[in-house]
Amino acid sequence: MLPKEIIQKIRRIEITTSKLVTDMLAGQYESVFKGRGIEFDEVREYQPGDEIRSIDWNVTARYGRPFIKKYIEERQLTVMILLDASGSSYFGTAKRLKSELAAEVSAVLAFAAIQNKDRVGLIIFTDRVEKFIPPRKGPSHVLRVIREALYFKPKGKGTDIGGALRYLDGVSARRVVAFIISDFFAKDFKKPLTIASKRHDCIGITITDPRELELPNAGLIELADAETGAVFTVDTANAGIRKKYADKAQKMIEERSHLFGSVDMDHMDIRTDRPYINEFIKFFKIRKKRR
Hints:
By secondary structure, the chain is of the alpha/beta class. The protein has helices at 4-32, 57-63, 98-115, 139-151, 161-171, 190-199, 239-262, 277-290, and strands at 37-45, 67-74, 78-84, 119-125, 129-136, 177-182, 201-208, 220-224, 231-235, 266-271. Helix 1 packs parallel to helix 8 (277-290) and helix 5 (161-171) runs parallel beside helix 6 (190-199). It folds into two domains: 4-33 and 76-290, von Willebrand factor, type A domain (Rossmann fold); 37-74, no CATH class. The chain has eight helices and ten strands. The longest helix is centred in the first third of the chain and has 29 residues, at 4-32. Strand 4 and strand 5 form a beta hairpin.
């Protein structure tokens, strides 16, 4: 039995995100994600204006007049959400924890998928794959995805994005749209990301808290690494230390953007202190324009 506060959270997210999708994102989602490709429909006689490369030469030779192959778009998508539940996701100094924001973003994607009759699945990972929900359709299935994203208690603390991507390949026989929701505090995942991006439509969604970008001037503070457990004291009154921290954070952002660009992967950056809907709208507009 789920705790009352979790049930209330699920209900709140269900109401908020489903309305958000209906009012602002449903049409944009459909226009950007067109389906896995095309499938054969029928052979018909050639008509002026048809593409020459569509001619079926075997049928043409058989009947002595040109015929073309006609295809239709295969609309239904499979959407997989890869959700990072490592120790660093349970951090937040603004309106919510990164894990809570990630769960809500997962809900938005799931509701957008089912409104377009797409299937949606979930992979929760840390330094291992912790939970796999096979892709299905329907409102009750989406509520299960939201419940697991909010309530699941992982065993691992670290982050293995590469392992999650390899698992995705193992459970996905066909091309999927894969949303990777993480802070991307991980190493050595370029190779599996490159492989996954060639097979699937991978999209990175980075969840960031403002304190991961800069430190406040608050004197001596104790910091703990959520994934390793290491604890250390930092003098934030020292301007040089604050600058070094900010420079390191900026370098990580640039390296991450370069990595996504090198594998031709779309991405968006979402922060715990800002409305995420603006980033979704911007992402859809850019992607639609490129298509």
